[in-house]
Structures are given as C-alpha cells and as structure tokens.
C-alpha cells in the first residue's frame, strides 16, 4: 500500500510546480520539505538578489507574475509569488520533514525524519543549489579574517569588512562584489580560469529572451553568431585579468554546466579599478592571501561564491551506480532510469531557470499521468 502515487521532495519552485501540474491531472501526491517555509533557499539568499530573467519568463504553470512586479523581481517578490502560487492552488506541504534515503524495493520507499513513506513515483525537486562548495587551499584554516560561503552572505553592511576577496566569477560572485564595491569596500575577485560574460540586456531585449529565440539553433552556432556582439559589448577584458572562455556562454552551459556572469555592473567596476581581479589562490597566512601568479594582498573577509552541488549522494544509496561519477542526472534527463524516479530543476539553462522548471514540471506530470 502506498501513501500517495507520488512523493515530491522539496517545496521550492520545482516542487510546487510539479505539485500543481500533478493536481491539474487529478493525481495524488505528498510534498515533503525539510525547512519550515516554502522556497527555503530563497529565504536564505543574500538580500540584493534579483531574478536576471524578465518576469514574463519566470512564471510557473498557471500563474503569471503580478503586473506590479518590476521587470526583474527581487528575492522577496519571488518568495511572495511562490507563497501565493502555493496557497492559491491549495498545495499542502509537510514542513520540517527531511527525506533521508530514497530506495526502490517493490515500490519506492522514502525514509524521512517523520517515518517511512511509499509511493509509485518520487520526484526529487531539491535543486542544483543544495550543498555549498567550499574550496580548500594551503593555509585556509589559518585565515585570520571572516571566511564564509555566499550562502551565508546577507549584505555589505552585515559583513562589517573593509577589504574583501570574492572567490568565483558567477552571478553570486558578481553581485556580491558589485554591492560591496558600491558600499565603499576595497574589493577583489579571485578567478580560477576562463569565464563567459553576457549582458543583462542587449538593445533593450533581455538575454533570456534572445536565448529563447535562438533555442532551436545548434548551440555552437549560436555562440559563433553572438561572439562578435559580445566582443563589441565588452571589449578585451584580458588586460583586467578576465580571460574569456573558449566556445562561448552556451557551450559553457551545455558542455560544462557553467553559467555565465550576467553583467549588471560588475564589469564596469572592474574596468574602473573599483574591483581588482586576481587568479586562483595559492595559499594564505593570517590576513595575507597569495595568488598563483606571485601577487598577494591583505583581506579581512573572504566570500566563497563558488557554487553548490546537488547533494544527491546523501539521498540515494545507489548514487554512484546510478550517475556513473556525475553529480546528478544528465542534462534534460527527467527520469533517467525510466523507473519512476524523476528529477526536476537540475538543468542549467540560458532561458531562465524558473521557466525551465515550469516546462519540466509539465513533462514530469504528463509522464506520471500517462502510466
């Protein structure tokens, strides 16, 4: 006997979208959420965070974002939207229930902090940003200043620092560095290798809108077409310490899972000298950080904006066998083994993650309803 046809793990955007899509098809489900609120990850992001995709490309199935929201909704507005999305669809969530193990016997079994549940299907909707990645280097544990991951950063004032090093060059790194530079901090970024940068908008059109229009073209062709435009827009960043990745932004997303920096002002601050750029960290002693090119500088805070892992190995006993050394399902694989175990929200895209989550949720629900 099963507790429901489907167990959904996670009550963020992916979990809610799957629940609404299943409900629309008359299917039964249970939603488990380890936190005490919807969209727990959004509650813990830094204050300044905004969507980098237009609100019309960021809605979940069945409910557009409110007209009064700005073009790029804030973190708090996204939370408001998700709470309204859940309540208006009467989605019941079991809060404070942590799924600990997912395994297949005669049916799917989910061990949780609140007991064992069984279902024909399980949807893992815990997302890409689950387990913070904290790189190590010689002397890191001896750093005498503040050392925190971007998941622990709230705002420049709370950091209470004067000289900041941001490790990484993704969107969190770019926004944190920009905010702190605007607040008057002496800011530097440590960039380990080549990166891609795209504008938030081009000629008044959002980058996500352009990506949606180009989505049916081969991705390497798209990068080749866009390369001259990006070169004109940003020029030679190499003289500022920013090496451009070969292949282009879309190639980086599809082949390496690396999302480009969407520029909202960070590049301009680098050009002006307000944000310095160093290569990878070699080692640190007390407050001095040494870099692989022989340069060094003093910092009283380091923010590791180095991303996350999905953390699926903690849930799946057969993780290594199931994913053959990868961090999770292959790109676009919603039901990799065709065995009733689904994944929603694990594919990085240039067209907007919330838009992609909505499309995936509909496909997952259609697959379950069609069995």
Descriptive overview:
There is one protein chain. This protein is α/β, with parallel strands linked by helices and 371 residues long. The protein has 2 domains: 187 residues, FAD/NAD(P)-binding domain; 173 residues, FAD/NAD(P)-binding domain (3-Layer(bba) Sandwich). It is built from 11 helices and 21 strands. The strands form 6 sheets. Strands 1, 2, 3, 4, 5, 6 and 21 form a 7-stranded mixed sheet that branches. Helix 5 links the parallel strand 9 and strand 10. Helix 7 packs across helix 8. The longest helix is centred in the C-terminal third of the chain and has 17 residues. The chain is globular, with a radius of gyration of 21 Å. The mean pLDDT is 95. One of its GO terms (molecular function) is flavin adenine dinucleotide binding.
Features:
371 residues, alpha/beta, FAD/NAD(P)-binding domain, 2 domains, 7-stranded mixed beta sheet, 5-stranded parallel beta sheet, 29% helix, globular, Auxin_biosynth/cation_transpt, flavin adenine dinucleotide binding, Flavin_mOase, FAD/NAD-bd_sf, monooxygenase activity
CATH fold-level label of the largest domain: FAD/NAD(P)-binding domain
- Low-confidence stretches at least 5 residues in length (pLDDT < 50)? none
Structural class estimated from helices and strands? alpha/beta
Q: What overall form do the CA principal axes indicate? A: globular
The percent range for strand residues is 15-25%
- Shape-level CATH architecture of the largest domain: 3-Layer(bba) Sandwich
According to DSSP, the number of beta strands is: 21
Into how many domains do the coordinates divide?
2
Q: Tally the helices: what do you get? A: 11
Range of helix content: 25-40%
Distance between the termini: 18 Å
Main beta-sheet annotation: 7 strands, mixed
Q: Could you name the CATH class of the largest domain?
A: Alpha Beta
Average per-residue pLDDT, rounded, comes to: 95
CATH H level, superfamily name of the largest domain: FAD/NAD(P)-binding domain
Radius of gyration: 21 Å
